[in-house]
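Researcher: Next entry in the queue.
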Amino acid sequence: MRAAWLWAGEQSCVTGPAAAFWHEMLPRAPSVIEVTVPAGQKPRAQPGIRIRRRDLHIRDLVNTRDVTVTEKPLTALEAAVALPDGSTFLDRALQCHVRFPALYRAFCRNIGSTGSPEASRMIIAAADRADSAAERLLVKLLRDAGINGWVLGYPFGLYRIDLAFPALKVAVEVDGWAWHVDAERFRADRRKGNALVRDRWDLLRFTWHDLDGRPTESINELTETLALAA
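Model: Structure for this entry, 230 residues:
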């Protein structure tokens, strides 16, 4: 990575998943190092290096361990767009590395750049409250699959089940982005889950990342559970 940055010149910076690795957001460096250079430069392509040409705001740049990389907010957003499990990565970054307001400001400074539509979708989902985006996504998947018999917010003792199939005693609990969830909400969700199991409900838990990143597998798991409960 250091060699790639030095080759691209002092006005360049390391970006994307490579910058995420440099910030210790990822455990391993990517096989291809992305380097951003000013829009007017045209360096020759090199094996293992991907070149992006654009002018970045000074607020989005930082020199860390003698390598210029994008600041953590822009790094987190652009790495999320590039990675196959991007929403999960971004959720972890919001828990451990960056705050949402800084992430949003970095997004606004870079609207129109490559990956902006996907970044916008992730920003909207991440900004939503803990479970509403995931619930809406689950309902859409159920309707698209033609699955009926479910009730949203089904009463269960002191609790409400996010989505229930009462006739089959199958409960689906939906978790949004983990960075929203405080300790008390986490404990309450676990108490509700334990109560459901004691009352012989089949309990499934899906995150927003499950429903967004692996919708077919999630619906198949639900369908199989419903078939076994019938």
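Model: The chain has two domains: 2-127, 132-229.
Researcher: Noted, moving on.
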